[in-house]
C-alpha cells in the first residue's frame, strides 16, 4: 500500500464565468459553453441544452481555443504595397480602409452596379450580406453553394421542398435501417455522429455507400464500395427492383406525391380553371383537383389523352436497362448485393411499419386516427452532389425515398422548420439593375421555367458567374467557382471590384488553383490588373489575403455578434423551430494594432458611407450602428426579423415587434431559442393542416397563407426547360446547348455518365480521384490550429492495393498523378478499404508557404497538396471554340469528383509539386512553444 | 519502486469502456482531453514547434486507425482510442524509482505526482500500451488522470462530473464508471457486449475495457433470406399494371 499519495484538490475552480454562444469551427453551429478564467478563454464544451449538439462537441469545437489564439489572426486593415499575391501590406486605420472601399465602390454603384462582384464564401449571414448586395444594386452576389452542394439543395427543393444537408434529419428514435451516400465529415457534423451512436445502441442497421471507408462508413454494418459517379445508377436499380417486386407505398404515393397527377401530351400537368393539378378519380370516373377529399386516384391509364405521372415513372424504371445485372459492373457493386439491399429496404419499410396513435387532419380536411411510419431513412452529401450528374442523382435518391413512403413520416427522413416549403414558396432569381438603385429583388431563387432565367434580350448572361442561364438554369446558389475565371476573361463582361468574404479562392476553394492565382495577378495592355480591385475580408492570414488590394480584418467567432437565423440555414429540430446568436464573449483586442471588426458591422459602416437604402435614414444618419443593432431591429416583413425568439415584449415567437432586450434574452436562454411544433403537426408537414397553420403563425410563408403541396416525383419546371430545348416557347436555348438540355432537364430522375468521362479516353485515365473532409479539420480553417494540425498535418494520396502493387509502390514513395488538365507529384500511402478504381486524399490540408502564420517548412506546405491543380473549371475543349463549364448542367455545381487520373511512380521530392513560391506573412509566424493554460492549474 | 494497493482493497475501479463498434475516429475525445488537461491537473500539455515543421505536443489520449483486410470480404477500418487503462497490476507504478507514479486506493486511478517525478521515463518504457507521454517543456511524465479534477469537482454540475472525453464524445462511444461494481452500467455493458482487456497476455489487468466491433453484415452472399420479399412480385395476371390495380383496390 503506497503512502506517497499527495493531497489532491479534487474541486479546483473551473471558471470565473461561463458564456454560452454558438460554435463556428464548421457549419454545424453547435451550442458551446465557453469557460473564462481571468478574462481569457480557458475551456470550451458543448451546451447540454442546445438542440444541435445536446452537450457533445467535436474535435474542431474543442480546438476553438487554438483558433481564437491563432497567430494567423489579422490585426488591422491592410493595404497592399507589394505586387498582388506577394503578401506585402501596410496596416491602415479603419477609417482609411472604409473610405478607400467607398471610393472604389461609389462610382460603380452610380454607373454600373454589376461591375461589383460580391461573393461571400462560408458565410453564415447570407440573409444579411444578400440584402446588402441587393441594396447596392449588383446582381452579382452569392455564397459558396455553387462549389459545395447546390445539387443536393436544388434537387431537394424541387422534389421534396427541402434538402438533406442540415435541413432535415432521420427519425433517429425510430428508424431501423439507415443508408448514407457519399457522406464523410459533412453536414451536419455532430448530429450525424450522435444519431449513428443512437442507432448503434439500438442495433439498427447502417449501410454506407462510399468509395472510401473512413469515419461513419467505417462503423457501418455494411459498406458498399461504389465507383464514384455511379450512385444514381445504383439507386435507380434499387428503384427497379422495388417496383418489380411491388414493394412500394401506393397509398402514400397517392396521397402525398404527384404520382397520380395527370400529364398532358406536352408533359405538363393538367390543371383545372383554378390552376390546380388534376388527378383521375376512379370512384367517380372523372378528373378532380388533387386536393379534393376522398379521392381514389388512378395511377395508370389514359383519360381523355391524359396519363398519370406514375405510369411514365413505372414504364421508365421497370425497363431492364435499370435492372441490377445491367448496372452492377459500372457501379462496382454485385447484382446480388443490389437486390439484397432492395429487399432489406422493403423489409424495413413494410414489414416493420410503425403506427403511432396520434390523430391528425390532412390538407384535404380528412381526419386520420393514426400516423403510419416507414422506419427506413437516408442521408446523402457531397459524394453524390459534387458530380456533373449530381442533381439527377439526388433526385433519384428522393424518388427512392418517396416510393418507400419514408419522407416526413415516423421512422423516415423529416424536415426541420421552416422546411419543407414548395418551390412556389421560394423566391425567383432577380437581376434587374438600375444604376444608383437597389436590385429588383433577391438574387438567388428557384426558377419555375425559362421565363425566370437571368438573360438579357440578346441572350447574354446578366450575372458574372452565368448563373440562371441555359448553361445552368437552376443554379440556385450561384456559381462562385466561375467568378474569377469569368471576370478575368471579361465574359460575359468585365468587372471593376471583386469583393469576397471567407472564401479561400486563391487556394483550396477554387478549381485550377495555379491558373486562378495567375488570373488574379494578370495585367491588361495598360499594365493594370485585369480584375482591377480586390477587397477581401478574413479573420486569418489565408492564401486569398495575399491577393487582395484591401483587407478588412474580421474577428474570430468568439469576438462577434451573429444570428443563426431562420431566414438563413436553420438549426432547428424536426420537432421544433430554433435559432441562435453569437456574441462577443471576449473583446476583439489586438494590442498595438488598429484592431478588427466583425465583417457584418464593417459592411453596415461601408453601407453608410455609400448611402445605401435601408442603412441610411432621410437625415443621412446610420439606421444601424452595428450588426447587433441590425439583428435586433431589422424587419424583413412587419414583425419578421433575423431572430424569431423573444420578440415584442419578449414572449412572442416568430412574429412580433423588435425587442431591444432580445440579445440579452438569448444570452439568458443559453444563446438560443426553441419552440416545439404542436404534436399533431410533427409529421407529414407538407400535407398536415395543423403544421401548415403553425407555419403561417410563425411567419414562414411570405404571403402568410398555408402552402400545402405534393412531393414532386415528376418536376414540371424541369419539363418546361426541356420543352424549350425541344423548340417550344419564346425563350430558346442556344443551339450548342439544345441536345444537352433535352437530357439534363429530364423531369424524371435519370443517370448519365459524368461529363469528364465522355470527353477523355478513360483508358488513359483509369482511376477516379476524390477528396474527403477529415472529421477533425474543416477546409482551410484548421491548419493554423496548433492542436488540429497535429492530427491532420499531411495528406498522402491513398492508393488501392491492386494499383499499389501494379506500380510497385512502397511506404514513403511518391507518385505523379496526371489528369487531362495537369500533373502533381505527391506522397502516396496504401489503403485497403477503398474502391479498386479510386484514389483519394483529405481535403484542403495542403497550404501555400507563408500562409496561415505557419513556418515555411511546415508539412502542410512541403508534403501537403491539393487535388485542385488537376481540376479545371472548364471541361477539356472539344474543338467548337466554346468554354464548357465543368459543372452540373442543371445547377452549375462544380463537378469536383468527376476527376479522372493516372498514376506513375516518381522520385522522392523535397516538396509536393507544383511548388508555389511563398507569400509574405503580414502577421509573422507563431511561437516556438505553446504551454496553454500554464499557471492556471 | 512503488508498491500497488492491494487489488481487493481498492474501493472502486473507475475506468472507461470504449465502444469500437461506435467510434467514428473523429478525435473529439483527443482534443477535449487536451483542452481540459492543459489547464488543469499538473503542468500544461505543451506543444513544441506548434506552427512549424515537426509539431510535437503532449496528448493523454490518442486515436489510432487500423485496417483489416480479409480475402473475399470488404476491408474494415477500426478506430482505436487509447489512453491509460489504469491497470490493477500497473507496471508503470512498480517501476517508478521515486514513488511519483501511484495508484489511488479509493478509486484505482493511476496518477503521477509531478512534484516527485524526475522525468526518467522508466514508467513509459514499462507501460506496454504506450499510454504515457513525457512533456517536452516541463520534462515530467503526463498521463490520463481520468479527469480526477472533474469527477469529484463540486464546482461542476453533477451530471458533468465525468471525464472530459466521455462528456464530449459525439457518438456516445465512451462510457465511464466503476468496473468493480456489478450493478454499474459499465459493468453491465461489458457483460452484454463481450468487453475485453487490451493485451491480456501482458498481465497488467487493465481496468478500461473495449467493446468489440459487431460482426459486419456486408459479407453475406450466402442464403438469400430476404429474397422472398422481392419475389412476391408483380409478374402475375396482367403484369405490373394488373398488380397495380389489385394493390390500389386494397387501399
TrEMBL record, chain A:
<dbReference type="GO" id="GO:0046872">
    <property type="term" value="F:metal ion binding"/>
</dbReference>
<protein>
    <submittedName>
        <fullName>Molybdopterin-dependent oxidoreductase</fullName>
    </submittedName>
</protein>
<dbReference type="GO" id="GO:0043546">
    <property type="term" value="F:molybdopterin cofactor binding"/>
</dbReference>
<dbReference type="InterPro" id="IPR006657">
    <property type="entry name" value="MoPterin_dinucl-bd_dom"/>
</dbReference>
<dbReference type="InterPro" id="IPR009010">
    <property type="entry name" value="Asp_de-COase-like_dom_sf"/>
</dbReference>
<comment type="similarity">
    <text>Belongs to the prokaryotic molybdopterin-containing oxidoreductase family.</text>
</comment>
<dbReference type="GO" id="GO:0030313">
    <property type="term" value="C:cell envelope"/>
</dbReference>
<dbReference type="Pfam" id="PF01568">
    <property type="entry name" value="Molydop_binding"/>
</dbReference>
<dbReference type="Pfam" id="PF04879">
    <property type="entry name" value="Molybdop_Fe4S4"/>
</dbReference>
<feature type="domain" description="4Fe-4S Mo/W bis-MGD-type">
    <location>
        <begin position="16"/>
        <end position="72"/>
    </location>
</feature>
<dbReference type="GO" id="GO:0051539">
    <property type="term" value="F:4 iron, 4 sulfur cluster binding"/>
</dbReference>
<keyword id="KW-0560">Oxidoreductase</keyword>
<dbReference type="Pfam" id="PF00384">
    <property type="entry name" value="Molybdopterin"/>
</dbReference>
<dbReference type="InterPro" id="IPR006963">
    <property type="entry name" value="Mopterin_OxRdtase_4Fe-4S_dom"/>
</dbReference>
<keyword id="KW-0479">Metal-binding</keyword>
<keyword id="KW-0004">4Fe-4S</keyword>
<dbReference type="InterPro" id="IPR006656">
    <property type="entry name" value="Mopterin_OxRdtase"/>
</dbReference>
<keyword id="KW-0411">Iron-sulfur</keyword>
<dbReference type="GO" id="GO:0016491">
    <property type="term" value="F:oxidoreductase activity"/>
</dbReference>
<feature type="region of interest" description="Disordered">
    <location>
        <begin position="420"/>
        <end position="458"/>
    </location>
</feature>
<keyword id="KW-0408">Iron</keyword>
TrEMBL record, chain B:
<dbReference type="GO" id="GO:0046872">
    <property type="term" value="F:metal ion binding"/>
</dbReference>
<feature type="domain" description="4Fe-4S ferredoxin-type">
    <location>
        <begin position="108"/>
        <end position="137"/>
    </location>
</feature>
<feature type="region of interest" description="Disordered">
    <location>
        <begin position="203"/>
        <end position="222"/>
    </location>
</feature>
<feature type="domain" description="4Fe-4S ferredoxin-type">
    <location>
        <begin position="75"/>
        <end position="106"/>
    </location>
</feature>
<protein>
    <submittedName>
        <fullName>4Fe-4S dicluster domain-containing protein</fullName>
    </submittedName>
</protein>
<keyword id="KW-0408">Iron</keyword>
<dbReference type="InterPro" id="IPR050954">
    <property type="entry name" value="ET_IronSulfur_Cluster-Binding"/>
</dbReference>
<keyword id="KW-0004">4Fe-4S</keyword>
<keyword id="KW-0411">Iron-sulfur</keyword>
<dbReference type="Pfam" id="PF12800">
    <property type="entry name" value="Fer4_4"/>
</dbReference>
<dbReference type="InterPro" id="IPR017896">
    <property type="entry name" value="4Fe4S_Fe-S-bd"/>
</dbReference>
<dbReference type="GO" id="GO:0051539">
    <property type="term" value="F:4 iron, 4 sulfur cluster binding"/>
</dbReference>
<feature type="domain" description="4Fe-4S ferredoxin-type">
    <location>
        <begin position="14"/>
        <end position="44"/>
    </location>
</feature>
<keyword id="KW-0479">Metal-binding</keyword>
<dbReference type="Pfam" id="PF13247">
    <property type="entry name" value="Fer4_11"/>
</dbReference>
<dbReference type="InterPro" id="IPR017900">
    <property type="entry name" value="4Fe4S_Fe_S_CS"/>
</dbReference>
